[in-house]
Each structure stands twice: as structure tokens, then as C-alpha cells.
Design a protein that fits this description.
By secondary structure, the chain is an all-alpha fold. The protein contains 5 helices and no strands. The model has no long low-confidence stretch (mean pLDDT 88).
Amino acid sequence: MAFGSRDTQTPSGRSAAPPVVEPLWRGTDVARSDVKSFGFISGIFMLLLLLALAASWGALEIVNATRAYATGESRYSKAQKIAVLHLHRYAYSGAPDDYAAFVKATEVPRGARMARIALESSPPNIAIATQGFLEGESHIDDVPGIIFLFRYL
């Protein structure tokens, strides 16, 4: 065999196979694989981002409903104090204006009671509960959150 010939022999005297040359198009499979994996990772990232946004929105809604619930409790407590004050005045004065102020001040606790009874009934009466919360001086936009909080949490 001449020097530089294509056939190479192994020490045992047999000819070795020529080296394998990979075609140029084979690199595009690797690129496609990288693009697919990048797309998959990007898709999972977007899914997790949407999940985080949904969880944040839900948490904000719960916090907002809790704020509305606490505001309602505050109004209930304040109306109760005012009612006791007017009843005390009426007991000493006997003036009908003091009694009328007492009755007016008890509207908030009576509205909250009506809402609670409506929500505890089976099935819950959402319309009466809404009316009760409105009589309890809750804002109309807060009522659905308060009802959700009362029923499910």
C-alpha cells in the first residue's frame, strides 16, 4: 500500500472502514431541538406567570372582601353604641326624638342580622342578604365579596 492511499489497514492486515462524515443537514436537527425545548420552557414559564397572576388577583379579592367585612363590623359596633346612647337619653328624657334616633341607629345592626340569617338559611337567600348588607351601610360594590367571604371562608 502506498503512502496517502485511502485504504488504511489495521495491524491485523484488514482494511478499516473509512471515517464517517456527518451530513451538513444534521446540525439543523439540533437547532430544531433547541427551538422546541426553548418553546417548551417559554410555555411553562408563561403558564406559571399566569398562575401567579391569578393567585395574586385572588389574594387581592380576599383582602378586599376582608376589609369590607371589617368595615361592616365597625359600622355595626358604632351604630350599636349610638343606639345605646340614644336609648339612655330617652330613658331619662322621655323625648320621642331620642327614641326615634334609637330606632334609626338600630337599622345597621338589624340589617346585618337580616343578612346573616339569609346567608345561614338553606339555601341561602342572596337577594335578602344583599338588602341586609346595604341596610347595614355596606357599599354596593363590597356586598358580593362579603357574601363570598361569609359563605366559603
